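User: My collaborator sent over this chain with a note saying "see what the structure looks like." That's all I know about it. Can you take a look?
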Amino acid sequence: MKRSPIKPSTKPMSRGKPIKARRKVRPKVDGIDYLALCRGQLCYLQIGTCSSHETVVPCHSNQGIHGKAMGLKACDIYTVPGCHKCHAELDQGNRFDKAQKFEIWNLAYSRWVLDRNEILKGVCNG
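Assistant: Without extra context I'll predict from the sequence alone. Here is the result:
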């Protein structure tokens, strides 16, 4: 069986249209954007590595009872405002063991829930 020679192409290889990554939109719980409530707040984690309040982001719980699983974040209700450094220490740091990290997050959440409810009262009554 004789094979035909491969002809050189003058066109560059076409890789097709680039695929745009779709950003997953997390549904709001009870119509409230809990992530937006965290932004601009002070750091509630207060691990001792706090940076400026300009870096505060919503820190999701890492506990299975709040819906955390492999590849899944906890529900947005279970977020706490935390600065970048404290959030990184809580998620990737090795200063604390798992039980201590859960305790830090739980204390921060108990303080944040009270303040968050006050903010929501002002928004609903405002």
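A starting point for your reply to your collaborator: The first strand starts at residue 57 and ends at 60.
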